[in-house]
Amino acid sequence: MLETSGDDLPVPNKVINYRIIATSRVHAYISKYIYPSFLSYSEFGLSFGVLSKYRVNKIIGFGKYSTVFMATNGKKKVAIKVFKDVKEITIKREVFILKTCRKLSNIVQIIDVVKDPKYNSISIVMEYCKASNAEILENLSLDDFRIYIYQLINGLYNLHSHGIIHRDIKPENILYDKKTKQLKIGDLGLAEIYFPLQQYTTGLGTLRWMAPELIFDYKFYDYAVDMWAVGIILYVITIDYNKKNYETLGQMAIAVSEMLTPSEVLTFIDKYGIFIPNSLLSAMPQVNFNMWPTYIEHMKPKFKDDDMIDLMRKLLVADPQRRLSAMEALEHPFFDKVPPEFKEINKKHKLKHSIMVRANAIKNNIKKRNI
Predict the structure, then answer these.
(1) What does the CA dihedral 303, 305, 306, 308 come to, rounded to 10 degrees?
(2) CA distances (Å), 333 to each of 237, 302, 311, 323, in order?
(3) Per-residue confidence (pLDDT) for residue 78, from 0 to 100
(4) Which residues contact 336 (CB under 8 A, 6 or more apart)?
(5) Is the dihedral of CA 310, 304, 151, 113 positive or negative?
(6) Tens digits of per-residue pLDDT, 82-139?
Protein backbone atom coordinates (compact mmCIF):
# COMPACT_ATOMS: atom_id res chain seq x y z
CA MET A 1 0.00 0.00 0.00
CA LEU A 2 1.16 3.53 -0.74
CA GLU A 3 0.48 6.96 0.67
CA THR A 4 0.48 10.25 -1.20
CA SER A 5 2.40 13.07 0.32
CA GLY A 6 1.33 16.69 -0.08
CA ASP A 7 3.68 16.97 -3.02
CA ASP A 8 3.75 13.83 -5.12
CA LEU A 9 2.63 10.25 -5.50
CA PRO A 10 3.37 7.52 -4.81
CA VAL A 11 5.71 7.22 -1.83
CA PRO A 12 6.11 4.13 0.35
CA ASN A 13 4.28 4.15 3.65
CA LYS A 14 3.66 1.70 6.44
CA VAL A 15 0.53 -0.45 6.22
CA ILE A 16 -2.44 0.88 8.16
CA ASN A 17 -4.50 -1.94 9.64
CA TYR A 18 -8.01 -0.73 8.90
CA ARG A 19 -10.86 -3.23 8.91
CA ILE A 20 -12.03 -2.06 5.48
CA ILE A 21 -9.87 -0.70 2.66
CA ALA A 22 -12.55 1.17 0.76
CA THR A 23 -12.69 1.88 -2.95
CA SER A 24 -14.84 4.69 -4.28
CA ARG A 25 -18.20 3.40 -5.50
CA VAL A 26 -18.09 5.92 -8.40
CA HIS A 27 -15.32 6.65 -10.93
CA ALA A 28 -13.05 4.26 -9.03
CA TYR A 29 -10.87 3.33 -12.01
CA ILE A 30 -11.36 6.38 -14.25
CA SER A 31 -7.79 7.58 -13.67
CA LYS A 32 -6.44 4.40 -15.26
CA TYR A 33 -8.24 5.37 -18.47
CA ILE A 34 -7.47 9.08 -18.52
CA TYR A 35 -3.89 8.90 -17.23
CA PRO A 36 -2.66 5.44 -18.29
CA SER A 37 1.01 6.46 -18.26
CA PHE A 38 0.93 8.58 -15.10
CA LEU A 39 3.71 7.83 -12.62
CA SER A 40 4.64 11.06 -10.87
CA TYR A 41 4.11 14.81 -11.14
CA SER A 42 7.90 15.16 -11.17
CA GLU A 43 7.87 13.81 -14.74
CA PHE A 44 5.47 16.57 -15.84
CA GLY A 45 7.35 19.40 -17.55
CA LEU A 46 6.45 23.07 -17.19
CA SER A 47 6.56 25.38 -20.20
CA PHE A 48 6.50 29.12 -19.57
CA GLY A 49 4.76 31.97 -21.36
CA VAL A 50 5.82 35.60 -21.64
CA LEU A 51 5.64 37.36 -18.27
CA SER A 52 5.96 40.88 -19.67
CA LYS A 53 2.60 40.79 -21.46
CA TYR A 54 0.77 40.84 -18.13
CA ARG A 55 0.33 44.07 -16.19
CA VAL A 56 -0.36 43.60 -12.48
CA ASN A 57 -3.01 45.89 -10.98
CA LYS A 58 -3.83 44.87 -7.39
CA ILE A 59 -3.90 42.05 -4.85
CA ILE A 60 -7.24 40.22 -4.77
CA GLY A 61 -6.36 37.35 -2.46
CA PHE A 62 -3.58 35.81 -0.43
CA GLY A 63 -2.75 32.77 1.64
CA LYS A 64 0.15 31.08 3.37
CA TYR A 65 1.74 29.84 0.15
CA SER A 66 0.55 32.25 -2.53
CA THR A 67 -0.73 35.71 -3.38
CA VAL A 68 -3.30 36.31 -6.13
CA PHE A 69 -3.21 39.48 -8.22
CA MET A 70 -5.66 40.90 -10.71
CA ALA A 71 -3.77 41.74 -13.90
CA THR A 72 -4.49 42.60 -17.50
CA ASN A 73 -3.33 41.28 -20.85
CA GLY A 74 -4.34 44.09 -23.15
CA LYS A 75 -7.97 44.72 -22.21
CA LYS A 76 -8.52 41.24 -20.79
CA LYS A 77 -8.57 40.78 -17.03
CA VAL A 78 -6.74 37.76 -15.62
CA ALA A 79 -5.83 36.43 -12.17
CA ILE A 80 -2.19 35.61 -11.43
CA LYS A 81 -1.37 33.24 -8.56
CA VAL A 82 2.19 33.89 -7.41
CA PHE A 83 3.67 31.09 -5.30
CA LYS A 84 5.95 31.70 -2.34
CA ASP A 85 8.18 29.12 -0.63
CA VAL A 86 6.51 26.24 -2.50
CA LYS A 87 8.27 23.20 -3.96
CA GLU A 88 8.20 23.09 -7.75
CA ILE A 89 6.59 19.64 -7.68
CA THR A 90 3.61 21.12 -5.79
CA ILE A 91 3.19 23.71 -8.53
CA LYS A 92 3.49 20.98 -11.16
CA ARG A 93 0.63 19.10 -9.52
CA GLU A 94 -1.67 22.14 -9.63
CA VAL A 95 -0.75 22.96 -13.23
CA PHE A 96 -1.22 19.33 -14.30
CA ILE A 97 -4.69 19.21 -12.74
CA LEU A 98 -5.72 22.62 -14.10
CA LYS A 99 -4.69 21.57 -17.60
CA THR A 100 -6.69 18.37 -17.17
CA CYS A 101 -9.70 20.55 -16.36
CA ARG A 102 -9.51 22.65 -19.51
CA LYS A 103 -12.95 23.24 -21.04
CA LEU A 104 -14.75 21.67 -18.06
CA SER A 105 -17.76 23.69 -16.96
CA ASN A 106 -17.82 25.31 -13.50
CA ILE A 107 -14.03 24.96 -13.08
CA VAL A 108 -11.69 27.96 -13.21
CA GLN A 109 -9.60 27.83 -16.40
CA ILE A 110 -5.82 28.05 -16.67
CA ILE A 111 -4.44 30.46 -19.28
CA ASP A 112 -0.68 30.43 -18.85
CA VAL A 113 2.29 29.61 -16.60
CA VAL A 114 4.99 32.27 -16.25
CA LYS A 115 8.32 32.58 -14.43
CA ASP A 116 9.98 35.68 -13.03
CA PRO A 117 13.75 35.22 -13.61
CA LYS A 118 14.58 37.99 -11.13
CA TYR A 119 12.99 36.20 -8.16
CA ASN A 120 12.93 32.70 -9.69
CA SER A 121 9.20 32.54 -8.85
CA ILE A 122 6.57 30.61 -10.82
CA SER A 123 3.02 31.89 -11.30
CA ILE A 124 -0.17 30.49 -12.76
CA VAL A 125 -2.30 32.77 -14.92
CA MET A 126 -6.03 32.00 -14.82
CA GLU A 127 -9.26 33.52 -15.99
CA TYR A 128 -10.47 36.32 -13.73
CA CYS A 129 -13.62 35.54 -11.78
CA LYS A 130 -15.35 37.39 -8.97
CA ALA A 131 -14.69 35.99 -5.52
CA SER A 132 -17.34 34.79 -3.09
CA ASN A 133 -17.80 34.19 0.62
CA ALA A 134 -20.38 32.94 3.11
CA GLU A 135 -21.85 36.42 3.61
CA ILE A 136 -22.69 36.74 -0.09
CA LEU A 137 -24.34 33.30 -0.07
CA GLU A 138 -26.46 34.10 2.97
CA ASN A 139 -28.01 37.00 1.06
CA LEU A 140 -29.03 34.90 -1.95
CA SER A 141 -32.65 33.95 -2.54
CA LEU A 142 -33.57 30.27 -2.30
CA ASP A 143 -33.77 30.00 -6.10
CA ASP A 144 -30.36 31.62 -6.62
CA PHE A 145 -28.83 29.47 -3.86
CA ARG A 146 -30.30 26.42 -5.61
CA ILE A 147 -28.52 27.44 -8.84
CA TYR A 148 -25.30 28.05 -6.90
CA ILE A 149 -25.33 24.60 -5.27
CA TYR A 150 -26.28 22.91 -8.55
CA GLN A 151 -23.29 24.47 -10.35
CA LEU A 152 -21.00 23.61 -7.44
CA ILE A 153 -22.02 19.96 -7.56
CA ASN A 154 -21.82 19.95 -11.35
CA GLY A 155 -18.26 21.28 -11.11
CA LEU A 156 -17.46 18.52 -8.63
CA TYR A 157 -19.00 15.94 -10.95
CA ASN A 158 -16.67 17.21 -13.69
CA LEU A 159 -13.67 16.90 -11.38
CA HIS A 160 -14.64 13.48 -10.02
CA SER A 161 -15.44 12.05 -13.44
CA HIS A 162 -11.88 13.02 -14.40
CA GLY A 163 -10.45 11.25 -11.37
CA ILE A 164 -9.80 14.40 -9.32
CA ILE A 165 -10.61 15.08 -5.65
CA HIS A 166 -10.62 18.80 -4.79
CA ARG A 167 -10.03 18.35 -1.02
CA ASP A 168 -10.58 22.00 -0.06
CA ILE A 169 -14.16 22.90 -0.96
CA LYS A 170 -15.37 25.95 0.97
CA PRO A 171 -17.10 29.24 0.01
CA GLU A 172 -13.81 31.13 -0.24
CA ASN A 173 -12.58 28.74 -2.94
CA ILE A 174 -15.74 29.07 -5.02
CA LEU A 175 -15.89 31.99 -7.47
CA TYR A 176 -19.38 33.33 -8.04
CA ASP A 177 -20.75 36.27 -10.01
CA LYS A 178 -24.00 37.32 -8.37
CA LYS A 179 -25.07 39.26 -11.47
CA THR A 180 -24.63 36.47 -14.04
CA LYS A 181 -25.14 33.66 -11.49
CA GLN A 182 -22.11 31.89 -12.96
CA LEU A 183 -19.97 29.76 -10.64
CA LYS A 184 -16.43 28.41 -10.96
CA ILE A 185 -14.59 26.15 -8.52
CA GLY A 186 -11.16 27.63 -7.86
CA ASP A 187 -7.98 27.00 -5.87
CA LEU A 188 -7.02 23.48 -6.93
CA GLY A 189 -3.82 23.69 -4.92
CA LEU A 190 -4.76 20.67 -2.77
CA ALA A 191 -6.51 18.73 -5.54
CA GLU A 192 -5.26 15.21 -6.18
CA ILE A 193 -5.79 12.38 -8.65
CA TYR A 194 -7.70 9.49 -7.13
CA PHE A 195 -6.33 5.98 -7.54
CA PRO A 196 -8.08 3.02 -5.86
CA LEU A 197 -6.38 1.34 -2.89
CA GLN A 198 -4.22 4.44 -2.46
CA GLN A 199 -3.63 6.10 0.91
CA TYR A 200 -3.89 9.89 1.00
CA THR A 201 -2.81 12.50 3.51
CA THR A 202 -5.61 13.42 5.92
CA GLY A 203 -4.24 16.59 7.50
CA LEU A 204 -5.39 18.81 4.63
CA GLY A 205 -8.04 21.43 4.02
CA THR A 206 -9.93 23.64 6.47
CA LEU A 207 -11.28 22.17 9.72
CA ARG A 208 -14.91 23.32 9.42
CA TRP A 209 -15.33 21.64 6.05
CA MET A 210 -13.49 18.37 6.77
CA ALA A 211 -15.35 15.08 6.29
CA PRO A 212 -15.38 12.47 9.09
CA GLU A 213 -12.86 10.29 7.24
CA LEU A 214 -10.40 13.21 7.27
CA ILE A 215 -11.11 14.10 10.90
CA PHE A 216 -10.69 10.51 12.10
CA ASP A 217 -7.63 9.82 9.92
CA TYR A 218 -9.02 7.26 7.46
CA LYS A 219 -6.48 7.44 4.64
CA PHE A 220 -8.37 5.48 1.97
CA TYR A 221 -10.76 8.34 1.29
CA ASP A 222 -12.13 9.39 -2.07
CA TYR A 223 -14.36 11.92 -3.84
CA ALA A 224 -16.92 11.70 -1.02
CA VAL A 225 -14.90 14.19 1.06
CA ASP A 226 -15.94 16.91 -1.40
CA MET A 227 -19.60 15.98 -1.12
CA TRP A 228 -19.49 16.27 2.67
CA ALA A 229 -18.13 19.81 2.23
CA VAL A 230 -21.14 20.66 0.03
CA GLY A 231 -23.40 19.43 2.83
CA ILE A 232 -21.57 21.66 5.32
CA ILE A 233 -21.99 24.66 3.00
CA LEU A 234 -25.73 23.96 2.95
CA TYR A 235 -25.72 23.69 6.74
CA VAL A 236 -23.62 26.82 7.43
CA ILE A 237 -25.52 29.07 5.02
CA THR A 238 -29.08 27.98 5.80
CA ILE A 239 -29.03 27.10 9.50
CA ASP A 240 -28.31 29.88 11.95
CA TYR A 241 -27.18 27.66 14.81
CA ASN A 242 -23.98 26.92 16.69
CA LYS A 243 -21.56 28.66 14.30
CA LYS A 244 -18.41 28.06 16.32
CA ASN A 245 -14.84 28.39 15.19
CA TYR A 246 -13.01 25.08 15.53
CA GLU A 247 -9.27 25.04 16.17
CA THR A 248 -8.46 21.34 16.58
CA LEU A 249 -9.41 18.01 15.03
CA GLY A 250 -10.66 16.94 18.45
CA GLN A 251 -13.12 19.82 18.57
CA MET A 252 -14.31 18.96 15.06
CA ALA A 253 -14.72 15.29 15.99
CA ILE A 254 -16.96 16.25 18.91
CA ALA A 255 -18.93 18.70 16.73
CA VAL A 256 -19.55 16.06 14.05
CA SER A 257 -20.64 13.58 16.74
CA GLU A 258 -23.12 16.14 18.07
CA MET A 259 -24.44 16.82 14.58
CA LEU A 260 -24.86 13.21 13.44
CA THR A 261 -25.27 11.54 16.87
CA PRO A 262 -22.40 9.61 18.49
CA SER A 263 -23.88 6.26 17.44
CA GLU A 264 -23.64 7.11 13.71
CA VAL A 265 -20.04 8.28 14.08
CA LEU A 266 -19.03 5.30 16.21
CA THR A 267 -20.70 2.90 13.75
CA PHE A 268 -18.59 4.46 10.97
CA ILE A 269 -15.41 4.20 13.09
CA ASP A 270 -16.11 0.58 14.01
CA LYS A 271 -17.05 -0.46 10.47
CA TYR A 272 -13.76 0.80 9.01
CA GLY A 273 -11.61 -0.22 11.98
CA ILE A 274 -10.40 3.30 12.72
CA PHE A 275 -8.42 3.82 15.91
CA ILE A 276 -9.36 6.77 18.12
CA PRO A 277 -7.70 7.55 21.46
CA ASN A 278 -9.65 7.05 24.69
CA SER A 279 -9.34 10.76 25.50
CA LEU A 280 -11.32 11.65 22.35
CA LEU A 281 -13.79 8.84 22.86
CA SER A 282 -14.58 10.02 26.38
CA ALA A 283 -14.97 13.63 25.19
CA MET A 284 -17.63 12.69 22.63
CA PRO A 285 -21.30 13.14 23.62
CA GLN A 286 -22.54 10.19 25.68
CA VAL A 287 -26.21 10.55 24.74
CA ASN A 288 -27.70 9.95 21.29
CA PHE A 289 -29.77 13.08 20.92
CA ASN A 290 -31.11 13.83 17.44
CA MET A 291 -30.25 17.48 16.83
CA TRP A 292 -31.87 17.80 13.42
CA PRO A 293 -35.27 19.04 14.68
CA THR A 294 -33.36 21.80 16.49
CA TYR A 295 -31.36 22.61 13.35
CA ILE A 296 -34.52 22.85 11.25
CA GLU A 297 -36.10 25.07 13.88
CA HIS A 298 -33.17 27.47 13.54
CA MET A 299 -33.21 27.38 9.75
CA LYS A 300 -33.58 30.77 8.10
CA PRO A 301 -37.20 31.06 6.91
CA LYS A 302 -36.31 31.79 3.27
CA PHE A 303 -34.28 28.57 3.10
CA LYS A 304 -36.86 26.24 4.65
CA ASP A 305 -37.36 23.77 1.83
CA ASP A 306 -38.08 20.08 2.39
CA ASP A 307 -36.07 18.98 -0.64
CA MET A 308 -33.02 20.98 0.42
CA ILE A 309 -33.22 19.55 3.94
CA ASP A 310 -33.38 16.05 2.45
CA LEU A 311 -30.37 16.76 0.21
CA MET A 312 -28.41 18.10 3.18
CA ARG A 313 -29.15 15.02 5.28
CA LYS A 314 -28.07 12.70 2.45
CA LEU A 315 -24.76 14.55 2.11
CA LEU A 316 -24.03 14.81 5.83
CA VAL A 317 -23.61 11.08 6.39
CA ALA A 318 -20.67 9.74 8.39
CA ASP A 319 -20.09 6.69 6.17
CA PRO A 320 -18.66 7.92 2.83
CA GLN A 321 -20.02 4.81 1.07
CA ARG A 322 -23.56 5.95 1.93
CA ARG A 323 -23.06 9.62 1.08
CA LEU A 324 -24.57 10.91 -2.18
CA SER A 325 -22.16 11.09 -5.09
CA ALA A 326 -22.09 14.20 -7.28
CA MET A 327 -24.10 12.47 -10.00
CA GLU A 328 -26.73 11.27 -7.51
CA ALA A 329 -26.95 14.74 -5.98
CA LEU A 330 -27.49 16.36 -9.40
CA GLU A 331 -30.56 14.14 -9.84
CA HIS A 332 -32.07 15.19 -6.49
CA PRO A 333 -35.56 16.79 -6.60
CA PHE A 334 -34.15 19.97 -5.03
CA PHE A 335 -32.72 20.81 -8.44
CA ASP A 336 -35.92 20.24 -10.44
CA LYS A 337 -36.46 24.02 -10.50
CA VAL A 338 -32.97 24.88 -11.79
CA PRO A 339 -33.38 26.82 -15.09
CA PRO A 340 -32.66 24.72 -18.23
CA GLU A 341 -29.74 26.91 -19.35
CA PHE A 342 -27.71 25.77 -16.34
CA LYS A 343 -28.55 22.10 -16.87
CA GLU A 344 -27.80 22.10 -20.60
CA ILE A 345 -24.06 22.60 -20.00
CA ASN A 346 -24.05 19.56 -17.73
CA LYS A 347 -25.77 17.35 -20.33
CA LYS A 348 -23.30 18.30 -23.07
CA HIS A 349 -20.31 17.63 -20.84
CA LYS A 350 -21.57 14.21 -19.72
CA LEU A 351 -21.97 13.12 -23.35
CA LYS A 352 -18.51 14.41 -24.31
CA HIS A 353 -16.94 12.78 -21.25
CA SER A 354 -18.57 9.42 -21.98
CA ILE A 355 -17.20 9.45 -25.54
CA MET A 356 -13.73 10.44 -24.29
CA VAL A 357 -13.58 7.66 -21.71
CA ARG A 358 -14.59 5.02 -24.22
CA ALA A 359 -12.04 6.28 -26.75
CA ASN A 360 -9.27 6.12 -24.16
CA ALA A 361 -10.33 2.62 -23.09
CA ILE A 362 -10.12 1.40 -26.67
CA LYS A 363 -6.84 3.22 -27.31
CA ASN A 364 -5.11 1.79 -24.26
CA ASN A 365 -6.74 -1.63 -24.48
CA ILE A 366 -7.80 -1.52 -20.84
CA LYS A 367 -10.73 -3.55 -19.66
CA LYS A 368 -13.55 -1.23 -18.61
CA ARG A 369 -14.36 -1.43 -14.89
CA ASN A 370 -16.58 0.67 -12.62
CA ILE A 371 -16.31 4.05 -14.34
Answers:
(1) -60
(2) 20, 18, 9, 16
(3) 98
(4) 307
(5) negative
(6) 998 899 999 999 999 999 999 999 999 999 999 998 888 999 999 999 888 888 899 9
Mean pLDDT by 10 residues, the chain (371 residues): 40 66 94 86 92 95 90 96 92 96 96 92 95 86 97 98 97 94 96 95 91 95 98 92 76 91 95 91 83 90 96 98 98 97 69 55 45 38
The DSSP secondary-structure symbol of 365 reads: T
Count how many Cα atoms sit within 13 Å of the Cα of residue 222 in the half-sphere of its side chain.
29
pLDDT number for residue 274: 95
CA 82 to mean position of chain CA atoms: 22
How far from 48 is each of 83, 99, 123, 124, 190, CA to CA, in Å?
15, 14, 9, 10, 22
Across 256-273, b (16+ Cβ under 10 Å) vs e yields bbebbbbebbbebbeebe
Superfamily of domain 134-342 in CATH is Transferase(Phosphotransferase) domain 1 (1.10.510.10)
Rounded distance, CA 311 to CA 328, Å?
A: 10
Largest Cα separation within the chain, whole Å, is: 63
What are the strands, taking DSSP E only, across the chain?
A: 2-3, 11-12, 55-62, 66-73, 76-83, 110-116, 121-127, 164-165, 174-177, 182-185, 192-193, 198-199
Find out whether 158 and 111 touch, Cβ atoms under 8 Å: no
Confirm if 162 and 153 have CB atoms less than 8 A apart. Answer: no
- CB under 8 Å to 161, separation ≥6 — which residues? 27, 30, 326, 350, 353
Return the SS3 of 125: strand
Q: Give the type of residue at 342.
A: F
Q: What's the distance, CA 3 to chain centroid? A: 19
Is 81 marked as a binding-site residue? yes
Domain ranges of the chain: 134-342
Residue pair 184/175 in contact (Cβ under 8 Å)? The answer is: yes
How many helices (DSSP H) and strands (DSSP E) are in the chain? 13, 12
Q: Give me the helices (H) in 284-322, please.
A: 292-297, 306-315
Residues above pLDDT 90, as percent of the chain: 68
